[in-house]
Amino acid sequence: MKTPLLFIFSVLTLIASAQIITPTMNAGFGVDADLKARILNGSVTTGDDWYVFPGTADTAANGTYIIDTTGAAAINNGYATDVSPWRRRMSTFYRGMSKPPFSIVNNRLWLDALFVRDYHGIDTTVFAAGSNKNGMSPQFWSGGIQNIPDKNDILDMFMHVRRAGPNPTDPLWFFGALSLGQVTGNRWFDFELYQTDIYYDRASHAWYGYGPDAGHTSWKFDASGNIISPGDIIFSASYQSSSLTSIEARIWVDRASLSITPAAFNWSGQFDGANSGSKFGYASILPKTTGDFYTGLQCGNDEWPGPFNLILQDNSMVTKYIANQFMEFSVNLTKLGLDPVTVFGTDVCGTPFNRIVVKTRSSSSFTSELKDFVAPIDLFLAPRADIVANAPILCATQSVSDIWVQNPSSSSHYSWSTLGGGNIVGSTTGTSITVDAPGTYVVTQRLSAVCSPYAYDTISISYDITCQTLASLITSFKGNLSGSQALLSWITNLNNNIDYFEVERSLDGKSFETVSRITANSKDNSINNYGFKDDVSSFKMPYVFYRLKIKLSSKAIVYSAILRLNLPISMDEVLIYPNPAKDHVQLALSSDKRQELKMMVYDFTGRLVEGKEISLKQGTNVFSINTDQWKPGAYLIQLMTQTQTINKKLLIQADGILR
Q1: What is the rounded CA–CA span in Å between residue 353 and residue 231?
Q2: In this structure, are 349 and 366 located in the same domain?
Q3: What's the pTM?
Q4: Are residues 543 and 596 located together in one domain of the fold?
Q5: From the centroid of its chain, how far is CA 587?
Q6: Contact 65/51 with Cβ under 8 angstroms?
Q7: Which residues of the chain have pLDDT under 50?
Q8: Distance, CA of 295 to CA of 332 (rounded, Å)
Q9: What is the extent of the structural domain holding 580?
Q10: CB 3.0-4.6 Å disulfide test: which of 166, 265, 436, 642 passes with 285?
């Protein structure tokens, strides 16, 4: 008896569907369309999720929350007291990962995570005039401010990338989730992953920072199908009214690359660019091995939406999802052939993308009109190591100096070495070391202990044969800020050995200058108190450093430890240093809340040379810009938030000389 082919196909389809929509734990993360750690499909288990539901049993060792919940109570209180025109409820905000990027938690490497509450209702980040489709260059997308259908209106977005273990051979997983305004009918959305620092300018309704290949970055292959360099990726999801239908993976390529057989994955037959004859476009791919590379579900009724609650399109606040409002999926990037470690040969901290754009579409067609979007946000960033020493000059063979990273990341690994002599006393790893010999000391920062180097910094320790160690001359050296004054105080108990003090100041902790000389009070052994006030109102730096240079009666010189005081910075006082600069520059500014900052840099002709969006935290923010590829000359840095625009001038030098 022959079995009808249609029946066999139907059975296989049902089996595949059951596999992709069954609640599961992938890499220790629950993919079950709820947001609760330690619970999978309603049952207590061990595993992570977006949040921990209040009162859930067990501890973080049994699973913990991915998204930072800082300020949830204050946000909900603000929502509760908000009234029309709903300024709080209509505002966007974001939260990053609850741990620093590249943290190892419960024996799994967390690369990064993101939660965004999108604009809604009269949305300020929507696709508006003209045609806006996948396959087009973002250069030609047009944004705007308008209402959109609630089935296309993004309320909240979640994203997380992790490895199934702490090692580079452990599978790499991508997790995404979305809540929309409407649950009836079919819904379609994209998670698009960019290599460049793409960003959206709400003022001009235009996109910038897109890639060089028709607005994207293309994947490149050698003749054998090996990947030479990665490009942009897109995951397109289709959810019916009852379940996930499919997730299609595509990569941006030159059409000619379709004649090459890739070594890491297979082409699956679809290619869409801006038009039918486009040179570049998104090509669909499938894994080399059989089996599904994705799973996904949508929530049941009365599901908890997390500690930030949920704001609907009509600005009402609710504490539960309705059925199918929250959609969640996972993609095994290693199985799909998009793992940067196994495919590109990079280190465990290699990431498959730099920024993410989430969009909704009007139909199942990949090139249907785009509707709503979540603007791009930086991912996988960590502060680059910056080191200082408390005693940059050693005074005798018994002298020591402590060197430390002044902006450490708790998940980074720091190792130390020397150039041209030098000696490290004790451990050569950690955020600080002790040295007892002159030389150049180097810190190497890795985002995790098994990663390739991420950043370096150096400091030189010198030796002065005429000076002596501080010993017990000074029993206290303190400082604090009072308004625009730095107040220094110190106490001595061997005053008869001291001729005078020189107060030295530095703005980088490395190069000091004398700002005052103070004669010793008396020539006895009594305890003496000293003080000094320094006006710091004109300093455009985040820190100021002080030390004491002490001239003894024996003509010897003694140095104190270094004090660092944090200077107050307002949003109006953006600090740029060094300026002039050569190969890099740092910007420091303060923000009274978490918000997005848009930065654009123009050369003297008015040409845009760099643009990016930066996620500011509440408090002081310091970030770096690489300028080694910029031509010498004058540049304008324009910084914009929703309420403010600031312009700053920057000079770039070549070989230390401004041209």
Answers
A1: 8
A2: yes
A3: 0.72
A4: no
A5: 16
A6: yes
A7: 1-18, 397, 656-659
A8: 9
A9: 575-652
A10: 265
